[in-house]
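Chain X:
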Amino acid sequence: MPNPSSRRLIFWRQGLERVPDSVWNEVELEALVLAENRLRQVSERIGGLKRLRMLDLGHNELASVPAALGDLEALTDFLYLHDNRLTSLPASLGRLKTLRYLNISENAFAELPEAVTQMIGLLELRSTDNSMTSLPESIANLRRLRELHLRNNQLTSLPEATVRLQELRQLDLRGNPLKTLPASIATLPRLEKLDLRWVETLELPAWISDLEARGCLVYR
């Protein structure tokens, strides 16, 4: 175990099936990496790590995460939950209002968890390689979002509320069975990259050329 005085603990690829109880006593921790283990659960005691800014639970076997994650008010830098077995997230995670980066890719989400749409501080959201068939209108809450990565889902369209994402720079829709896209996407003032590669079900709308004319890169 690294020196706790560093305020950082890294248990990457340690073959862990459970988190050592001693971790929950390190209340000064600012970063905790538990990636690429065999974790199937995480204790509610994680809610006591009030100074945690970075948490990596990616590449494990988690079917759920504790509601106490919503108590991590200092969690601002990133939360990695990718490559697990998650189908939902506790509503309490919606309290993470200052979180800037969230990765929930490579899970089994059939829809974007409502808690995610309450994380109003998000700058980047990655939810690739899931099974989402639609996005909720509440995606509009993420007014600060700059990057939205939705590759390899089952999306057939996007909600009109997408136009409320006025800070959006990158929109990745690769590998989705899209049939339509709202024309309002063309009005997103800061959009720099729209990725439509591997989309074989969409007849490109005329407004795509308007996007390209103003300098947005459209990959198709």
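Chain Y:
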Amino acid sequence: MKDRFLAAARGEATDRPPVWLMRQAGRYLPEYREIRADYTFREAISTPDVAAEITLQPFERFRPDGVVMYSDILVALEPLGLDYRIESGVGPVVMDPIEKPADIPADRYPIEETLDYVGLLLERLTEEVGEAAAILGFAGGPFTLASYAVAGEPSRSHVPVRGFRAAHPEAFQRLLDTFADVVAEYLQFQVEHGADAVQLFDTYAGLLGPEDYREYVLPHHQQILEAVDVPTIVFVRNMGGRLEMLEETAADVVALDWTVEMEEAREILGEQPVQGNLDPSYLLGDPEFVRKQTRSVIEAAGPEGHILNLGHGLDRRTPVESVSAFVETAKDFEW
């Protein structure tokens, strides 16, 4: 429920860990595949009634403590006039990618107009869910958005954006400034329309070296998260050994990927609330395996300031029964 989630985000002890999953609504659910047969991805996320129905599908099945809006990190490109599509077998494709400093958008359109459908979605979710769960918004972080905008499509090594940083360091800073300003405003827009907490996904920023992360990304994370009036969660993958940098972001909660030992993270971060961090591939196992591994994460995290989640998003091949086992293990747990 909402109160349990918010208490954990404040670092308080809870009777059991609140639980939700990244990519909670998606292709692993048969009801999702059924509704998506009638809509493209862009149509689905930009039609509030459809997006609300999809968002609530896992809530109706599993009753997690957090309901995360059905959307995508790339919607933050829209106020900058950058267009994109989701291409089957490829993923997000940004038309007219940023190849040189002159390509960085100079104009910005009002978020309340370009992303009004997100506000309407959050208002519908607030009405439907009430106090039963926290309504969660999110946005992509500046480096991750820049990676897509520069490469034009998903990149395994993210060399295009890293190369842009090497070739045009001042323009790279300007590009991150541009995205950070939009994301900060966008997250606060979500709060104004009903989000109880928000997560910043700068998933790929961990590929930067420590000096580059501290110089280019950390100040933007601080800027974004300090601008938001509700509990905030920061997620950056591959930050094992650099968790203290995530502590400096000003996020209320640090989300951990599965490569981080939960007990070690608790020692490093002290009283900092954490989220995570079961390996998503474990949910491809049978329910008993899932229950065992989930209990292990809960016990390692302890009773104070822990939100149970995966270390990244659900795989589309995940059995529904395994998701149910994950959520129910949290619900059945007692300290």
